[in-house]
Amino acid sequence: MAETSDPRVAVYLDFDNIVMSWYDRVHGRNAYSRDRQKIADDITDPEIAERLAAATVDVGAIIDYAASFGSLMLTRAYADWSAPLNADYRSQLVARAVDLVQLFPAAAYAKNGADIRLAVDTVEDMFRIPDLTHVVIVGGDSDYVPLAQRCRRLGRYVIGMGVTGSTAKSLAAACDEFEAYDQLPGVTKPETPAENGRSRGGRGSGSGRGRGRGGKSTPENGNDQTEVVDEPSGAVVFSEEAVEDPQEIASRLLQRALQLGDRGDGDWLHSSAVKTHMRRMDPSFSEKALGFKSFSDFLKANSDIAQLEETGHERLVRSTD
């Protein structure tokens, strides 16, 4: 039996969101919207079966990551489990003791069924299990921002998870910590797919059902982008406007963290404290996602911004200005 002082973790998976988002990540932007009808018509079609197999989500990697924060008290996955695509995952989920929450096909007036049910269950569990310490929300929909904020106000540590390219920046900012599914141990990062899924007029593509909740302008690091929400998945994709280089964003984040930590006295700072500060400002920051093996390597690559001093096991850094 776990000690009562052990962190206790609850995991909530918007399963349709993560499956469809990962499909798009592997096969290209809006790929699932284009293939949705083919998948619904015949999931055993050789071409479709091959594409689905290449985009299979490793549920075990998600659960193992959540377990690194403490003892898993409950794990729930929300989807229409009668759908052939989701049914293929049932044995994998049951083997990991995941509670499958059935969501019947939503009518046109109930587009946010998974979002609402997941949010209601999460809030109820926080009051029903008062010693719950960590909440893991798996899904990239910006509709989960109020849920993450409420969990934090109630004293829980919130971890968000989504697929790179299909996660709202606002959701990452609302969490204490955010991790991309692509970066989990055991998950093979796909090669960058061809840009064959260009959005049309900010309304998405494919079956035409992606009118979503409308286009939302989101200023992000100075660049205005239009969020297009694919209703069946809840995933956020962006229009074809230029996206700023993640390395440049991270470099500016480092510079800001050093300036705030310096306080004008020019003292050396522990690199771990700088990284912690950076993740507080942007929970989605990850040096590994940028291709660096360690935070020290990231600092060395930004020598024009940060001066790194390594003494034994100690890593100190300060601004070069």
Automatic annotation (TrEMBL):
<dbReference type="Pfam" id="PF12872">
    <property type="entry name" value="OST-HTH"/>
</dbReference>
<dbReference type="InterPro" id="IPR041966">
    <property type="entry name" value="LOTUS-like"/>
</dbReference>
<dbReference type="InterPro" id="IPR021139">
    <property type="entry name" value="NYN"/>
</dbReference>
<feature type="region of interest" description="Disordered">
    <location>
        <begin position="184"/>
        <end position="232"/>
    </location>
</feature>
<dbReference type="InterPro" id="IPR025605">
    <property type="entry name" value="OST-HTH/LOTUS_dom"/>
</dbReference>
<dbReference type="Pfam" id="PF01936">
    <property type="entry name" value="NYN"/>
</dbReference>
<feature type="domain" description="HTH OST-type">
    <location>
        <begin position="246"/>
        <end position="321"/>
    </location>
</feature>
<dbReference type="GO" id="GO:0004540">
    <property type="term" value="F:RNA nuclease activity"/>
</dbReference>
<protein>
    <recommendedName>
        <fullName>HTH OST-type domain-containing protein</fullName>
    </recommendedName>
</protein>
